[in-house]
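ok trying this again, last paste got cut off
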Amino acid sequence: MKPRIHVITLAVADLQRSLSFYRRLGLESPGVVGTEFTGDDEHPAGDIAIFELSGVLLCLYPESELAKDAALGQGPPSATAFSLGHAVATREEVDAVLAEAQAAGATITDVPHERPWGIYSGYFQDLDGHLWEVLWNPALEVV
């Protein structure tokens, strides 16, 4: 396997609600697509919202449909199974993005502060509990 990721799909409870949340954060999406693909008890529906990020697609997909698509039973969510990192160019931008996320309805789980390993970061959870770290690393050039 080559070391790359092209698509990150987040399971969501309410597709329209999550689409609105990420749009309030400034992400752009054409809206829910794939609605012509109806599902049933065994086959997933196609309804999905897609955001183009820097070289990666962020997709929102209903939890029930993702479980069917992966041929798994729907399991309990775990906020600490992984986090998504959003690197920014300055410390001030960390504060601003976290404030923007909170204004959009996110829950701040850890206010920004200096980490012992040299970064400045804080965390928020989106409406479905997905964990995002907003960080500034002086050794990382963010464009």
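PB: full thing came through this time. The chain has a mean pLDDT of 95.
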